[in-house]
Amino acid sequence: MNKYIDIYKNELLNEIVPFWSKNSLDKDAGGYFTCLDAKGNIYDTDKFAWLQGRQIWTYAMLFDKVEAKQEWKDISELGASFMRKHGRDENGDWYFSFTKRGKPLVQPYNIFSDCFAALGFGALCKINNSNEDADIALSTFNRILERRNNPKGKYTKGFPGTRDLKNFSLPMILCNLSLELEHLLDKSTIDSLIDEVLHEVMSVFYQPQSGLILENVHHDGSFSDSFEGRVVNPGHIIEAMWFIMDLAVRKNDTELVNKALEIAFTALEFGWDNQYEGILYFKDIKGHPVQQLEWDQKLWWVHVEALVTMAKGYAITQNEKCAVWFEKLHDYTWKNFRDAENGGEWYGYLNRRGEVSIPAKGGKWKGCFHIPRALYQVYNTLEQVAEPAKI
Amino acid sequence: MNKYIDIYKNELLNEIVPFWSKNSLDKDAGGYFTCLDAKGNIYDTDKFAWLQGRQIWTYAMLFDKVEAKQEWKDISELGASFMRKHGRDENGDWYFSFTKRGKPLVQPYNIFSDCFAALGFGALCKINNSNEDADIALSTFNRILERRNNPKGKYTKGFPGTRDLKNFSLPMILCNLSLELEHLLDKSTIDSLIDEVLHEVMSVFYQPQSGLILENVHHDGSFSDSFEGRVVNPGHIIEAMWFIMDLAVRKNDTELVNKALEIAFTALEFGWDNQYEGILYFKDIKGHPVQQLEWDQKLWWVHVEALVTMAKGYAITQNEKCAVWFEKLHDYTWKNFRDAENGGEWYGYLNRRGEVSIPAKGGKWKGCFHIPRALYQVYNTLEQVAEPAKI
After folding, report:
1. What is the number of domains present in chain B?
2. Residue A344 sits in which domain range?
3. Rounded Cα distance, A36 and A42, in Å
4. Residue B171 and residue B167: Cα distance in Å, rounded?
5. Which residues contact A159 (CB under 8 A, 6 or more apart)?
6. Which InterPro entries match (chains A, B) (predicted)?
């Protein structure tokens, strides 16, 4: 696995980061453009809270973990200046999207806007020591905890009491966010939160019979035989398992590492497309038709998160199966998502056959986040366990 | 074109209608199952207001227009009994979906639930002469008119005042609904409504420069350079043009027929996939990446509605270009959507290459509506202008 260290590090520092540094900065109004075509040209100037928060995080993380380059700190700050000024409504909840100049376009109906804002400001305050930014991260985090049992509030379309389901995404993200904000939280808060989200993910959403995690379950964790209840998102499961492994390492819990890895393997096998390779986006756990028309597409984040999970699994357990899966995923991902022609950021959306379906590097949901984070996580993980190269 | 009359009529009466009559009826709780797999097996028992209303309409229309079979009237009644009992909230607005036994699952956030309920009860009251059903249709129609400037009400996520767009779907459906409810409305109401929706469709949403109709425009009809503003749904345009042609015939307005047909040709040419044939689901008017991941799929309703538009265009104008397009669409549609193996209803969702992507005959959005309506419309239209067959 050692050979991948340089490959991932070079791609991050020579292709991905320069692409975003060159093309995404709105030096005029602040914030980041994320709607960038294959060559990095801006095709839309709207700004999306998820992607603003995530890019603030990415550049702060690079400054903190890779190299203390002033340029990277300034880029993180550019997004933060926009979001401090325009991001929140009068309750402190984060709008979903904005015009170029920061007028709100879409109301704060989506709690993940808040999660990624907390993530971004949490990382930024680590490198700029700003109390204001620490307050933004912490107050946002507290609002997420307040809102988490009713995250959509008045925008909830479900009729109360008929089929109340809870969704896997929020506990999954809280696994990661709780560690990212560790420097801002007191130990007892974080310990009890971690225990709670571990319980949610590994006992409530996890289904022992299939070995998989469902996207939506009844409040008691039981199965709902409905479109929402049957849907499996293999990429979500696989990504969550590296968050869980990070928590397991922190808790020094080998059993938890092994369990997370076992679930990740099950999800990889369940999601793998034996006909055209790659990981399918959605499948029905009972094999029924799904409601997501894009079910058979291959998405960038699914594949790069799987690379991280296998790299971490390998680093912690030395299980050879991780290396085998890593290589298989690496071959597919680098061949199909990477843009050999234009370089820079990778494509995000492939059809089932692995052909580019949306010829863009970013948009409403894809920005400067999964690929740089994954490239960093892979090389950093492998570096930590690397043997001196055998010549 | 005469040869298509028997082909379309046979398919309707020997394949499509028997499929729904056999597989979709919930004789236990009332209403219709629409989640039916390739062989007609029920894979989910939830019920969806759009599809309940539409199937009530289809069977009432068959009774009214094709043959006064008691079975068809009973089937229309089966859906109506469910919807009368469970369909509405205390304001008379229609829930979006229900459990098998009629408990509401999703709130009345979607005004098209109301449109299709009005359509269904409007057709049923024509054949059962029920004042109650006429009242349901009429009061629903009046609520739609009341709600139409703010159709999503409290579920609206757009921030007011930043980029207020209006959507093409509602005026488009009102074109059709106003004619379908003509027997319930007084002449001055319907005449002024028709003039209003014609203005909306042909002057506000229609863009002279491209010759296309946009899905979303500013309130003054001007272009919004955003994901929502740039998106073109060729199938929507083509379907709307047969609604417009029906209105034009009613108004005896030849110029309007020609204009509608010209727009339909432009949309067909814009939407046609020169690489793999068929009509693409979404395209950006400026050629930018779209946000809809399913943009390159081929959908059943798009193709059968295009067949209706070309059949009507041919019948009214005898323009040979309609016949050429009809044959091209017929060949693609029958080859790819029709299920030669199992028979019955056709498939709904193909990938760009024309392969079945969702192996189901119905689901949350596809029921007993577009295919039977289109088959009926095509053969009935061609019958009306048919020359005696040349032997």
Report:
1. 1
2. 4-45+165-383
3. 5
4. 8
5. B95, B103, B104, B105, B106, B107
6. 6-hairpin_glycosidase_sf, 6hp_glycosidase-like_sf, AGE/CE, AGE_dom
For helices B370-385 and B49-61, the axis angle rounded to 10 degrees is: 30
CB A244 within 8 A of CB A253: no
| Residues 145-174 of chain A whose Cβ lies under 8 A from any Cβ of chain B | 154-155, 157-159, 162-163
How far is CA A178 from its chain centroid?
Answer: 14
Chain A residues whose beta carbon lies within 8 Å of the beta carbon of residue B157 = 96, 106-107, 109, 155
Q: Residue A278's Cα: distance from chain center in Å? A: 18
Residues B46, A226: C-beta atoms closer than 8 Å: yes
- The dihedrals phi and psi of A102, each to the nearest 5 degrees, come to 100, 5
Neighbour count for residue A203 (Cβ, 10 Å): 10
In a domain, B58, yes or no: no
Is the residue at B93 inside a domain?
Answer: no
Q: Hey, are the CB atoms on A107 and B157 less than 8 Å from each other?
A: yes
pLDDT in single tens digits along all 391 residues of chain A = 999 999 999 999 999 999 999 999 999 999 999 999 999 999 999 999 999 999 999 999 999 999 999 999 999 999 999 999 999 999 999 999 999 999 999 999 999 999 999 999 999 999 999 999 999 999 999 999 999 989 999 999 999 999 999 999 999 899 899 899 999 999 998 999 999 999 999 999 999 999 999 999 999 899 999 999 999 999 999 999 999 999 999 999 999 999 999 999 999 999 999 999 999 999 999 999 999 999 999 999 999 999 999 999 999 999 999 999 999 999 999 999 999 999 999 999 999 999 999 999 999 999 999 999 999 999 999 999 876 544 4
**Do the domain assignments include residue A209?**
yes
The residue count of chain B comes to 391
**For A10-122, where are the E strands, in sequence order?**
35-36, 42-44, 47-48, 97-98, 104-106
Query: A99 and B163: CB-CB below 8 Å?
Result: yes
Q: What does the angle CA A176 – CA A179 – CA A181 come to, to the nearest 5 degrees?
A: 110
User: Is A157 in contact with B155 (Cβ distance < 8 A)?
Assistant: yes
Residues of B in contact with A358 (CB under 8 A): 289-290, 293, 295
The CATH number linked to B362 is 1.50.10.10
